């Protein structure tokens, strides 16, 4: 079997680890918005604003990855994300500036989210793609631990205004290991990137179940990440960021010790169990009134995330033509932006009207209904040979 851990894999892993601090620490931003007096609906809208920037940039990202190259796109994304994090220093009240900052961060994170996993798919051997993506994804989940540590070192909501710019400087340092990655040569001509080819590739029958599963999974992630921390805080937990410690622990554990399980049992079976775990996390969180209960919710969500993301991203790459891998990954990550844009404000409004408990239970129902729909599609289309 060809090795997964190569020099390029390690450099890419380190670069992704450093830039992922932006995505990870932004989970604390709802606490800063709450400090500024935002309602749940406003928090959802502000967090969703990043998706507008990311979605608007997706066509350019797709073109850049498949025509310009992976590394140049990643450099641009890193600079944009760092600039967005630095701009938080200017945010001291709710207003247009908050949304502009999130738009910029959305473009940066959308570029990096898509680009890093596309390049990882290039450097990981095809025979071990799901396992390799699971291990590579550790670099994006490990930074979640900082959210549990931050309050313990004195970073309360008012201090987050200065905390995020410091993270922005760390993100810039990710350009150093990125420079050491050798981008594999691609025998892809720019003419392969055309509107007709893109539409035909993304409409492949075998990809339809993947798109549906992505909407279900990404939707649950969007809601959990937007509201788990503020829901825990509203119930009196001294350190609501601890939910991200167990979240990270669950995700990292399954990837470190069970990365081969999807290929052994079948990716679709593992994805179904992972979606069920994430739905269960909302059930726990809905009635959680203690740190222990929220810890279990975080653990279940982390286990679900730990398995579902590498399985779905691996299926996107496996079921797409090589010439349009970057485009397919842009579509995959773009669906994450769609769910944040639609579901974060919608569930925030639901919480304002009916309370956190009802909102979290509704998210569990969303996951379960989506799981049933995806299973039906996967059984019908997932096993078909590629056209």
Overall number of strands: 0
Specify the structural class: mainly alpha
Helix content: over 70%
**Which percent band covers the strand fraction?**
under 5%
Low-pLDDT sequence parts: 189-193
Which fold name fills CATH's third level, the topology? Growth Hormone, Chain: A
Q: What's the alpha carbon Rg, rounded to whole Å?
A: 19 Å
Fourth-level CATH superfamily: MFS general substrate transporter like domains
What is the N-to-C succession of helices and strands? HHHHHHHHHHHHHHHHHH
From the spread of the alpha carbons, the general shape counts as globular
CATH architecture heading: Up-down Bundle
Number of domains: 1
Tell me about the biggest sheet?
A: none
CATH class: Mainly Alpha
Distance between the termini: 28 Å
Task: Output mean pLDDT.
Answer: 84
- How many helices in DSSP terms? 18
Which key terms come to mind for this protein?
mainly alpha, 18 helices, 387 residues, 76% helix, globular
Describe the structure.
By secondary structure, this protein is an all-alpha fold. The protein has one domain: MFS general substrate transporter like domains (Growth Hormone, Chain: A), CATH 1.20.1250.20. The protein contains 18 helices and no strands.
């Amino acid at each position: 079997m060809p090795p997964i851990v190569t020099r390029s894999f390690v450099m890419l892993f380190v670069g992704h680890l450093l830039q992922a601090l932006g995505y990870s620490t932004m989970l604390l931003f709802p606490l800063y918005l709450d400090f500024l007096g935002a309602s749940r609906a406003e928090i959802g809208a502000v967090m969703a604003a990043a998706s507008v920037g990311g979605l608007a940039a997706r066509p350019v990202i797709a073109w850049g990855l498949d025509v310009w190259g992976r590394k140049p796109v990643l450099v641009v994304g890193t600079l944009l994300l760092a600039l967005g994090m630095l701009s938080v220093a200017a945010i001291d009240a709710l207003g247009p500036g908050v949304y502009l900052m999130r738009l910029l961060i959305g473009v940066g994170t959308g570029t990096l989210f898509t680009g890093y996993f596309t390049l990882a798919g290039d450097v990981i051997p095809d025979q071990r793609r799901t396992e390799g993506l699971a291990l590579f994804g550790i670099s994006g989940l490990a930074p979640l631990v900082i959210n549990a540590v931050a309050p313990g070192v004195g970073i309360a909501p008012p201090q987050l205004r200065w905390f995020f710019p410091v993270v922005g400087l760390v993100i810039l340092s990710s350009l150093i290991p990125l420079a050491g990655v050798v981008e594999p040569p691609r025998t892809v001509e720019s003419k392969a990137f055309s509107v007709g080819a893109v539409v035909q590739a993304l409409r492949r029958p075998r990809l339809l179940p993947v798109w549906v599963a992505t909407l279900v999974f990404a939707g649950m992630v969007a809601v959990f990440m937007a509201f788990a921390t503020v829901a825990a805080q509203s119930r009196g937990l001294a350190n609501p960021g601890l939910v991200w410690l167990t979240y990270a622990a669950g995700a990292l554990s399954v990837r470190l010790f069970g990365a081969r399980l999807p290929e052994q049992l079948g990716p679709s079976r593992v994805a179904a169990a992972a979606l069920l775990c994430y739905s269960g996390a909302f059930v726990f969180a809905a009635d959680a009134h203690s740190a222990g209960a929220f810890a279990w919710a975080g653990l279940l969500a982390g286990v679900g995330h730990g398995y579902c993301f590498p399985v779905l991203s691996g299926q996107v790459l496996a079921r797409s033509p090589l010439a349009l891998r970057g485009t397919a990954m842009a579509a995959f990550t773009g669906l994450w932006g769609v769910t944040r844009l639609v579901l974060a404000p919608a569930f925030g409004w639901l919480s304002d009207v009916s309370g956190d408990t009802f909102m979290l239970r509704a998210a569990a129902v969303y996951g379960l209904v989506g799981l049933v729909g995806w299973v039906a599609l996967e059984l019908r289309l997932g096993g078909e040979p590629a056209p």
